Batch of 2 targets.
Target 1
Amino acid sequence: MSTALKIATWNLQRPRAGSWKNIPKILEKIREINADVWVLTETNAAINPGDDYTSISSKFIPDYHTQGETCSTIWSRYPVKPLNFPTFDATVAVCAEITSPVGSFIVYGTIITWRDDGVQEGKAKAWERHYRAIEHQSADWLKLQTKGLPLCVAGDFNETLNEPFTYGSQQGRALLQAAFQANELVCVTAKESLGYNIDHICLQTDWAQKMLCVDTWDQHKCLNDDGKPVSDHNGVYVELSFA
């Protein structure tokens, strides 16, 4: 029985289903990382880690997405059980129970919206919807605690959480830290050694103590044949040992 678990997340910058330049390179990197559980954001159904994985996705947005696109998809090489739990916004966040050799746990995959969501349309001020999303998602995490299973939250948080801060806001970071504390979560990717990173993985405190390593891969080193990055985000993963 395996006593190790590898979880990864990556924002793929909305690849199109027929993107022959980017998709092969994305899949190559995904297979190289070889995570047991993936949270892919701004992704597409064309991005499939392999036949031994199953998935669950956030809902399609008709006026925004092209064919196959979703905001968040959870892929797992272990059985995925949908939860009877409506996330605050089913087009953005998705959650599922994973039954793994180290035990069952819940994964919540998400995008916490960016600074200017709704600004151009005059419907919100800068960061307003970001702050609101943190509060709503934190409420989701708290409700999921009642399931009695360890919780992993992963995805695009649109905040750097390590110094020196280069993207985000002081209020946003404070709200996230309060959310982590309220839900007994540790953001294991908030490390200065990882450099610039707005994609994160959060684990329950006892799971965070089982961490073997955490690392990232640089978007500027994951290039298509034209020499351009396949995504504008770095990816990140964590390895855990339950031995």
Target 2
Amino acid sequence: MNRIILSGALAALLAAPAFASDDDLVLDDAMRTRITEQLTAEGYEVGKIKIEDGEYEAYAKKDGHRYEVFLDADLNVTHTKDD
């Protein structure tokens, strides 16, 4: 019985997605520059950048609209949201 419970718990842990925590991300001047350069190349005008819920969050403008642009630890844009 204990083996069944243990194997079920282990399977649940392994199946859970891994999320970066705020502690895993670094937001120093070099990272701000990298994020700004990347988003500028994509047509954004970048303002404030912060870490929120395990992702980088940049406040940016593009084509007259304001957005919140979310990036993962590898600086891939995961999603955007109208600001």
